[in-house]
Amino acid sequence: MGNPVIKFDHVKKHFVKRQGLFGKSALKAVDNVSFEIQQGEILAVVGESGCGKSTMAKMLCKVYDPTEGSIYVNGTDISSYKKNKDVAKFRKEVQMIFQDPFGSLNPAHKASYIVGRAVELHYPELSKAEVKARVVELFETVGLTPAADFMEKHPNQLSGGQRQRIVIARALAVKPSILVADEPTSMLDVSIGIDIMNLMIDLQKKEGLTYMYITHNLASARYMADRMVVMYAGNCVEQGATDEIIAQPLHPYTILLLSSTPEPFREEKIEIYASENLPDLTGEMNQCPFAERCPKATDRCRREKPEDYRVGGRLVKCFLYEHAATAEEVGIDVSIYNKVK
Ligand SMILES: Nc1ncnc2c1ncn2[C@@H]1O[C@H](COP(=O)(O)OP(=O)(O)OP(=O)(O)O)[C@@H](O)[C@H]1O
Ligand SMILES: [Mg+2]
Predict the structure, then answer these.
(1) Which of 28, 182, 264, 309 lies deepest, with the highest CB count within 10 Å?
(2) Which whole-number Å values give the CA distances from 231 to 18, 33, 335, in the listed order?
(3) Using a 6 Å cutoff on CB, does residue 29 contact ligand 1?
């Protein structure tokens, strides 16, 4: 691997939570996560609600500082950017796209103003005519063509997909090298969502962008991403190439995620080992975070937190893989996910 564009190095984010009048505890939203994203790569961060995905995105965009550990972008620890001028320069490199395209656009402004304002702010040297030309170019880049049909519209006159295209155009206005997309299609109809995913893949190729793509949906991670980080309760439980993880998930949580993905042609109903037993993120985590839900958990899993074990090109946070290389070897009934493929 070359020099990563993004590197999370043992990153933790603990939020202080009040308990009663005087008590305090730390909610471990992200707990010791490490991974890298290479230039031009799409990395998906996958996991269920509350597992820490948005917190990771916000740390990468410097909305929050990590409690411990470091995040490097192009080799620089981003916590070293402290002056407003340096943070502003950094924000040009890393742009974020949120889930709700309506909430992130001011309804009072026209689409051309929303995108034009971003161009003006970051490129004050441009003349009015140059800004307008750049806005037209950006509308065309994101598939809002002819641009003139969309420029004068307000967000409420646009469809959800068109609004998300405006959000993407606004992000591209500053010529970022990294896009952090936090569930960008989850509020869109499925076919519109695929349209947006295709647009993002095209842009990634054309502009050589690097993505952190956040989703709770394994199918969209599979569609978009080269590699995947699977999160559970603030921990990265498995990471590796998307194709390999989908073909043979190793961590029991990844198997649960994959087996609970609906498949239109599956004939049998699949019994998954889901339960409502979500871990307490404020507790002292001296056990496997998935132990309470895992059918393979042993006493050791309830007393000790596993490290990452290397299995081929993958890292798996599970004692089962201390000496084994496949799910069959550790006695997991792989028929579940063989039926899914
Ligand atoms: N600013 C905050 N202050 C306190 N706790 C927070 C804060 N932001 C997030 N959390 C908590 O951190 C945990 C992880 O939240 P996060 O939003 O990162 O999850 P997520 O994976 O993005 O979930 P979702 O899929 O629902 O968006 C949750 O328990 C959440 O309640
Ligand atoms: Mg989120």
Answers:
(1) 28
(2) 25, 9, 23
(3) yes
Q: Would you say 274 and 290 are in contact if contact means Cβ atoms under 8 Å apart?
A: no
Residues 6+ apart with CB under 8 A from 115: 135, 138, 139, 166, 169, 170, 173
Are 24 and 1 in contact by the 8 Å Cβ rule? The answer is no
CA count, 13 A, side-chain hemisphere, 92: 12
Ligand 1 centroid – CA 89 distance (Å): 27
Q: Whose CA is nearest to atom 2 of ligand 1?
A: 15
pLDDT band for position 339 (cuts 50, 70, 90): very low
Residue 270 has pLDDT above 60, yes or no: no
- CA 253 to CA 305: how far, in whole Å? 15
Q: Which CATH superfamily is domain 6-242 in?
A: P-loop containing nucleotide triphosphate hydrolases (3.40.50.300)
Instruction: Please tell me the number of the ligand nearest to residue 17's CA.
Output: 1
pLDDT in tens, 274-293: 555 667 788 777 899 999 88
Domain ranges of the chain: 6-242, 248-341
- Distances in whole angstroms, Cα of residue 47 to Cα of each of 149, 185, 221, 235: 38, 15, 10, 10
DSSP-derived secondary structure letter, 269: P
- What is the model's pLDDT at position 340? 41
Q: Give the predicted TM-score (pTM) of the model.
A: 0.90
Cα separation, 128 vs 115, whole angstroms: 13
Q: Please state, in angstroms and rounded to a whole number, the distance separating the CA atoms of residues 270 and 258.
A: 11
